[in-house]
């Protein structure tokens, strides 16, 4: 594994060096070359080689793979509900900056039914567990879901709220994906757009008197995703809504195979400068493929430990180290032995301490 900055210690692994690989290395690593540190197309044209071997070569070179462009917007798995009130999503909208115009109310708790898209919204003053539980108790007097999805906020995972969900036999869970309650987040946009237009119209930030009318307006408007007004949906409409929302007959096409070695995207909303490494230095192995729409993958680290969560293809990058025989060492922890028997305990760049290992001195290159 190459690493930016000269003088690092690396381990050399025996590998057959192909002539075309040496040619590609010169064209890629020599700053004088027009194709240096570029992409597949430019290196393919400069070398006269087809794109597939060039792509394979680049997938094993850290300066390329660690800075490979990351996709932030792509199709994700749909939250699928088979009936009304089978799955809800809930979130908090922070409106603290308007609290002095709204009798101290700082937040709005929103809930949406995933199948019908029926929206509920409740203002409240604080995020205490008792306050959140009180809002849900009010809702549960009318109707209860089988499942509820939220973010990992402590307001949802307090002992009081979790006990309330358990008492009503409601399965509560959160996703590990960066895209959380996507359906509810999309519903927030038209609601907040209208709210801010009212603010401008009235020259006031008061919303307590318009929140319910705006939510009612949303629920009585035809939703483009399924062609119904959420307030008018009944159980008899469930099969039609399900068919409209979920294209189940789409063929599954996997981009990765089991045992493929991959990096994970570091995509974060607050950290997106393209010149910084955008992918993990540590590599992982695909060990389960799920036929979801779109497909998702489960990963293990190189010691066989499962990585929490599932990953979309756009969050993974296949790499090939077969032609790259160097792996970087972060530091030498300690040594043992003398002469030809001398060994080093090393920590590898991009890997945690569980991967620390002993190597022979003669394997080193500087």
From TrEMBL:
Bilayer-crossing residues are none
Could you give a single Gene Ontology term from the biological process aspect? DNA integration
Start and end residues of each Integrase catalytic domain: 65-238
Q: Where is the signal peptide?
A: none
**What is a single Pfam family found in this protein's UniProt entry?**
rve
Note the superkingdom of the native organism.
Eukaryota
Report domain Chromo positions: 327-366
Recorded GO MF terms: nucleic acid binding
User: Per the record, what is one GO cellular component?
Assistant: chromosome
Matching InterPro entries: Chromo-like_dom_sf, Chromo/chromo_shadow_dom, Integrase_cat-core, RNaseH-like_sf, RNaseH_sf
- The protein's name: Uncharacterized transposon-derived protein F54H12.3
């Amino acid at each position: 594994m190459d690493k930016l900055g000269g003088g690092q210690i690396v381990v050399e692994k025996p590998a057959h060096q192909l002539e075309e690989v040496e040619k590609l290395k010169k064209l890629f690593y020599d700053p004088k070359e027009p194709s240096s540190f570029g992409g597949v197309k430019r290196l393919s044209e400069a070398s006269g080689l087809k794109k597939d071997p060039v792509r394979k070569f680049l997938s094993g070179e850290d300066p390329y793979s660690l800075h490979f462009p990351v996709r932030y917007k792509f199709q994700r798995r749909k939250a699928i509900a088979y009936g009304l009130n089978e799955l809800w999503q809930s979130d908090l909208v922070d409106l603290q900056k308007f609290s002095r115009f709204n009798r101290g109310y700082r937040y709005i708790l929103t809930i949406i039914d995933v199948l019908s898209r029926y929206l509920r919204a409740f203002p409240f003053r604080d995020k205490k567990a008792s306050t959140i539980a009180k809002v849900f108790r009010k809702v549960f007097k009318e109707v209860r879901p089988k499942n509820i999805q939220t973010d990992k906020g402590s307001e949802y995972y307090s002992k009081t709220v979790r006990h309330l969900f358990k008492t009503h036999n409601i399965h509560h869970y959160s996703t590990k994906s960066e895209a959380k309650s996507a359906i509810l987040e999309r519903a927030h946009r038209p609601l907040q757009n209208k709210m801010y237009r009212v603010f401008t119209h009235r020259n006031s930030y008061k919303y307590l008197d318009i929140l319910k009318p705006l939510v009612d307006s949303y629920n009585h408007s035809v939703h483009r995703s399924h062609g119904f007004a959420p307030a008018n949906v009944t159980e008899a409409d469930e099969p039609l809504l399900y068919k409209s929302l979920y294209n189940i007959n789409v063929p599954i096409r996997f981009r990765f195979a089991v045992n493929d070695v991959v990096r994970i995207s570091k995509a974060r909303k607050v950290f997106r400068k393209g010149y910084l490494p955008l992918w993990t230095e540590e590599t992982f192995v695909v060990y389960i493929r799920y036929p979801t729409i779109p497909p998702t993958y489960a990963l293990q680290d190189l010691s066989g430990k499962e990585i929490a969560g599932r990953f979309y293809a756009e969050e993974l990058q296949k790499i090939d180290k077969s032609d790259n025989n160097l792996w970087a060492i972060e530091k030498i922890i300690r040594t043992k032995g003398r002469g030809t028997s001398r060994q080093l305990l090393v920590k590898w760049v991009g890997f945690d301490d569980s991967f620390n290992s002993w190597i022979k001195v003669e394997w080193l290159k500087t």
